[in-house]
Amino acid sequence: MLSNPTIRFATPADAELILRFIKGLAEYEHEADSVAATPALIRSQMEQPEPPFECLIAERDGEPAGFALFFRTYSTWTGRPGLYLEDFFVPERFRGHGVGKALFKKMAQLAIERGWARMEWAVLDWNHPAQEFYRARGAAAKDEWTVWRLDGDALAKVAHE
To answer: Which of the following is catalytic: 28, 74, 84, 134?
Structure first.
């Protein structure tokens, strides 16, 4: 029988573990070759006085079982910060055992404790298991909004216009 998962904040010493989870998520999303982050980069960012992200690690029976990497956003409409969930991943062998629920619950608790107005994230349109997970927790897709991105050469071009 598996124990209940424990949730803790990641530290700079977890940089390699975080990258393993990031790569696991990228592989699940069919983008395994897109990860450019390194343990050294993640570690150095986590050691900054104001790191650009926070990360929760789930453990079950002492073994890493999932992670949630997030950062603070701001809503001009609510006049309050929010939580943006950038990466959320539970390896297949831990799915269906409460790990994702525990991580998601902890993020919601953090948002409320900090006075943040909401949690937001993006989900690939083909990722129906994730969509069902979120719907089961009361989340709703914002289908009227489309995510846009400017990066790489296009970002540089705009910056130098």
So the answer is: 134
> 96 by DSSP, 3-state: which?
coil
In our burial notation (b when 16+ CB lie closer than 10 A, e otherwise), range 20-47 reads bbbbbbbebeeeeeeeeeeeeebbeebe
Q: Per residue in 102-123, pLDDT tens?
A: 999 999 999 999 999 999 999 9
Pairwise CA distance, residues 91 & 100, whole Å: 10
CB 42 within 8 A of CB 19: yes
Domains of the chain, first to last = 6-159 (3.40.630.30)
Residue type, 137: R
Q: Which amino acid is it at 63?
A: E
Q: Please confirm, yes or no, whether 84 is among the known catalytic residues.
A: no
Mean pLDDT of the region 49-74: 97
Residue 107's nearest CA partner among 159, 150, 57 is: 57
